[in-house]
From TrEMBL:
It comes from Granulosicoccus antarcticus IMCC3135. InterPro entries: DctP_fam, TRAP_DctP, TRAP_DctP_sf. NCBIfam families: dctP, TRAP_S1. GO terms for cellular component: outer membrane-bounded periplasmic space. Coiled coil: none annotated. Gene3D superfamilies: Bacterial extracellular solute-binding protein, family 7. This is Solute-binding protein.
Amino acid sequence: MNFTTNQTVKKVAGALPVLALTAAALVAGTAQAADMRAWNIHPAGYPNSDAIDQFAAEVEEKTDGEITVKAYHGGVLGSQPDAIEQIRLGAIDFGQFSLGPMGQSIPETNVVSLPFIFKSIPQMYELMDGEVGEAIGAGMEKKGIVPLGWYDAGARSFYNSQKPINTPADVEGLKIRVMNNDLFVGMVESMGGNATPMAFAEVYQSLKTGVVDGAENNPPSYESVNHFEVAQFYSLTEHLIIPECLCMSKVSWDKLSEEQQAILKTAGKHSAETQRELWKARETSSLENVQAAGVVVNTIADKGPFQEAMEPVYEQFLEANPDLVELVDMMRSAD
Ligand code: BDP
C-alpha cells in the first residue's frame, strides 16, 4: 500500500462515523442543511412568482440558512404534468401547481375542476381554508405532495381567434386547448367543441398557427404569455374557479425536523396571503391591458346555459368516483 492510498483509507475511515450520524439524523428527521428547488410555470413578476420568492426568503431567514430554496420561474424545469410526478418522486422539492392537472393522479383535487363548483372567489377561499381544503390536502399527502398554502387563480374564461362566445352553441366546432385532465375534455365536448389537452408552453404557437382556435384561462395568464395577441376574443364565461397550491414533495418534507416543518408551514401561509393580495390587482390590470391592446371582451348575462350544458361532467365524475360524492355535495350545497 503506497502513501496516497494509506491517506485515502484514513480519510474514508474518519468520514464513516460522520456518515453514520448523518443517516441516523435523517431517519430521526433531525435538522439538516439543504438546498432545495422550486418549480414554477409563471414568469418573474407574476403574483405567484413573487409569492414563491417571498416564501424562499422567509424559509432561508427563519431556518438560519439551513434550508435554501431556489425558485425556477418560467417553466424551465419542465411541463406541469411532468413536474407533478417529479415532486411525488422527490426529484423536485417544491411546486406551485394548479389543482387542474393534478386531478389525473390525485382524484380528490378534481372536485375543484368541476365547472361552476364554487359560487364565487370569496366562497372558494372559505371552503379551501376549511374542511374542503383539508380533504383535498389529505388526498394530496397520500400521493406524496404536502400543501403549504392555497393560491388564488381567479376564474377561467374561454378565448379564441374566431368570435365572441355568448352561448354554449358558440363553442360548437371550435378546437379548444385544455389543461391535461379528462374532466376538461368532457367539459368542452359537452358543448360540441373539440378539446385538445396540451402543455401551457405550446399554446401560443398552436393558437398562432391555427392548430387550436382557442383556449381558456384567467386574465393574468392570458396576458402574461401573450395569448391575447393571437386569440383576440375573450368571453367572460368564468366556468372554472381552480385554486392553486404551493406544495412540497413529501419525500423532502419527511427529511425535515418538526421545527423546520413548522417554519415552512408558516412561510407557506404568509406566501398565500401575499399571493391573494397581488392577484386581485393583477386580474384587474391584465384585463385592462389586453383591452387596451385591442382584445374584445364580452360578459355573459346568463351563465345558466353553460352550467346546464356542462352538467354531464358531474354525472360522469360522480359515477366514476363514488367516494367523492359526499365532498362534492358538501361543496354544492354550501352558501
Ligand atoms: C394558469 C395556471 C398554470 C397552468 C396554466 C394552464 O396558473 O398553473 O399551467 O393556467 O392553462 O392559470 O396550463
